[in-house]
């Protein structure tokens, strides 16, 4: 947002500075300096908490116990929405307290700084292109033809294959493997144990065995993408598997070959996207939700945890179950099933 103050990262802040940082309206006075965002159960006078009375983006309102915990907490400042009548302490009113808390927490938790250069134990091919500001940590392997952009960081024991491209300010944590023909955009974060660009699961039966189809399309990942630990994004067959800008992939996520994720897609833990599936902008998959291949999930769709997508999902729909259906239909079916089981138990 424009108009935010230029503050030293990690510095303690006054309530007025916090209000300016999150573009909120300060109510009440305090001389306290604040050093951290904290949950309501453990907050002290130098901490900031956040609370929302209204329904959040997932359709959930706080329970009475959560409301009481907020009232009783010892935080010196609260980030609240406009529906909170009285915060019981100085507060900063904002449209989205969770977003404001994230902005503030990013200020207090300054990112770790890495020294530019190549660690003596790293192995870098002679024709690899490394920007002078990149940091290549211990035991990293950067293969022939790879391109590492400005400010990119490879922490330790990272493998980057031939011809891979790592964009500016992208961070790869230990034990990440980036195969050939992979492009990672700017400001991406890839956590430990993840593999990007391994051959997709493509085989053809020749009458006696499954013959592997070469997977040479690679992977193209946009900007500001975060990928959790132990996730796998497979190489496309002839064209790249695509991950759009701003996507968030949790731990243990699988994205199959030739899949296409739009912008700001969220895949929660153990979600699986089968090959050649197209997922529209802003779609959200709950934990362990999965698709069969060659279908389309529309923009803004919400897929409940453990749902199995067997056919196309319209844009904006919310589905649940195995196979997945409209969530209201799923809830009605569950009620009928419970009634049937209850009646059967009475016989």
Descriptive overview:
This protein is of the alpha/beta class and 347 residues long. It has 2 domains: 94 residues, MurE/MurF, N-terminal domain (Udp-n-acetylmuramoylalanyl-d-glutamate--2,6- Diaminopimelate Ligase, Chain: A, domain 1); 150 residues, UDP N-Acetylglucosamine Acyltransferase, domain 1. It contains 4 helices and 38 strands. The strands form 6 sheets. A 12-stranded mixed sheet has the order 6-9-12-15-18-23-26-29-32-35-37-38. Strands 8-11-14-17-22-25-28-31-34 form a 9-stranded parallel sheet, with no helix packed on it. Strands 7-10-13-16-19-24-27-30 form an 8-stranded parallel sheet, with no helix packed on it. The longest helix has 20 residues. The chain is flat and about 70 Å long.
Give me a quick take on this structure.
This protein has 347 residues and is an alpha/beta fold. Helix content is 14%, strand content 27%. The radius of gyration is 24 Å and the shape is flat.
Topology:
Layout: H1 15-21, E1 25-27, E2 36-37, E3 47-51, H2 64-72, E4 77-80, E5 91-93, H3 97-108, E6 117-118, E7 123-124, E8 129-130, E9 135-136, E10 141-142, E11 147-148, E12 153-154, E13 159-160, E14 165-166, E15 171-172, E16 177-178, E17 182-184, E18 189-190, E19 195-198, E20 203-205, E21 210-212, E22 219-221, E23 226-227, E24 232-234, E25 241-243, E26 248-249, E27 254-255, E28 260-261, E29 266-267, E30 272-273, E31 278-279, E32 284-285, E33 290-291, E34 296-297, E35 302-303, E36 308-309, E37 318-320, E38 325-326, H4 327-346
Parallel strand pairs: 2-3, 3-4, 4-5, 6-9, 7-10, 8-11, 9-12, 10-13, 11-14, 12-15, 13-16, 14-17, 15-18, 16-19, 17-22, 18-23, 19-24, 22-25, 23-26, 24-27, 25-28, 26-29, 27-30, 28-31, 29-32, 31-34, 32-35, 33-36, 35-37
Antiparallel strand pairs: 1-5, 20-21, 37-38
